[in-house]
């Protein structure tokens, strides 16, 4: 029966690892019965007591999620750390959210969140999951946001603000719960770039992404509050790893200085 279950799980999730063979790369999180044959990763995967598909041979590597409000400086921070040889960086797949087969779900969502919120967030969930399961090519991975913040911050915001219908929220939530129960999403450290919504608003205007021109300050305030409740006050959802808070309202020079100051803590995430 366990073997059947294993086969079924691999049938469902194997397409996520198209470039790797099943025998060496996709494993099911250890259960007593399977323990003799299979190994699971020992460090923080995001939930336990369920069979999870994990990649073999990555136990010594570490994964850092870089979290923060829109235009808080995440991409700029990743660019800085990308120069470190032990670190690979994965940026958010925003270009996909702006263009899936010629359509722009990000733009559509900002124009009409009630109609297109589910469409965008389904695609965000898929593309973030795709990022999470990519094989690692360096000892440390720093990735921009996560499938968790997509759900706990952005889906939550749409729903709480009355812009996502109950049924859309329910469907997304069931998808999300299935994913985190069945697929290992490793994380060792969350780096939170903590900014004021006002700073983000100014940087957002400076960046001038076409779809985001309609974003008011209040939207950034809601996203900020959800982040704070999650990562600082621990008032909303489980936090899956320790959080390193970096104050990020400062100018670029001071930010680079702070990144240097925190380099050791970040590099030590996998020890
Ligand atoms: N410390 C900073 N001070 C001033 N502007 C910044 C700073 N960090 C980033 N920026 C600018 O703010 C905008 C948003 O930064 P970005 O790194 O793209 O944010 P995110 O990836 O979090 O959305 C960009 O135009 C970037 O050049
Ligand atoms: C994860 C996620 C993002 N978005 C939106 C928010 C922004 O407009 C872009 C991401 O840009 P950033 O500068 O990297 O913050 O995508 C969203 O609507 N839903 C999401 O789940």
From TrEMBL:
Q: In the UniProt record, which is one GO cellular component term?
A: mitochondrion
Quickly give the catalysed reaction: thymidine + ATP = dTMP + ADP + H(+); 2'-deoxycytidine + ATP = dCMP + ADP + H(+); 2'-deoxyuridine + ATP = dUMP + ADP + H(+)
Annotated keywords: ATP-binding, DNA synthesis, Kinase, Mitochondrion, Nucleotide-binding, Transferase, Transit peptide
Keyword set includes Ribonucleoprotein = no
- On the tree of life, the source organism's domain of life is Eukaryota
Localization, per the record, is: Mitochondrion
Spell out the Pfam families in the cross-references: dNK
What family is this protein classified in? Belongs to the DCK/DGK family.
In terms of PANTHER family, this protein maps to: DEOXYNUCLEOSIDE KINASE, THYMIDINE KINASE 2, MITOCHONDRIAL
The entry's protein name is Thymidine kinase 2, mitochondrial
Q: Which organism is it from?
A: Sinocyclocheilus anshuiensis
**What gene name is listed for this protein?**
tk2
């Amino acid at each position: 029966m366990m073997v059947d279950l294993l086969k079924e799980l691999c049938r469902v999730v194997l397409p996520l690892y198209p470039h790797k063979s099943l025998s060496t790369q996709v494993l099911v999180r250890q259960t007593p019965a399977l323990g003799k044959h299979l190994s699971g990763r020992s460090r923080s995967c995001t939930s336990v007591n369920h069979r999870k598909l994990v990649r073999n041979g990555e136990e010594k590597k570490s994964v850092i999620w870089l979290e923060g409000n829109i235009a808080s400086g995440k991409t700029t921070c990743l660019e800085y750390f990308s120069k470190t040889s032990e670190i690979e960086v994965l940026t958010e797949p925003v270009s996909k959210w702006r263009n899936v087969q010629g359509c722009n779900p990000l733009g559509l969502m900002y124009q009409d969140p009630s109609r297109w919120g589910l469409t965008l967030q389904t695609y965000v969930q898929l593309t973030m999951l795709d990022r999470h399961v990519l094989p690692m090519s360096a000892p440390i991975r720093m990735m921009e946001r996560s499938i968790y913040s997509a759900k706990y911050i952005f889906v939550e915001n749409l729903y709480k603000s009355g812009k996502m219908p109950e049924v859309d929220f329910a469907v997304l939530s069931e998808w999300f719960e299935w994913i985190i129960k069945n697929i290992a999403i490793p994380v060792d450290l969350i780096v939170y770039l903590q900014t004021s919504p006002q700073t983000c608003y100014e940087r957002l205007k400076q960046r001038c992404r076409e779809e985001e021109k309609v974003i008011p300050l209040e939207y950034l305030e809601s996203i900020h509050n959800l982040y704070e409740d999650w990562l600082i006050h621990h008032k909303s959802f489980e936090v899956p790893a320790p959080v390193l808070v970096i104050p990020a309202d400062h100018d670029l020079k001071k930010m680079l200085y702070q990144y240097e100051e925190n380099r050791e803590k970040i590099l030590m995430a996998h020890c």
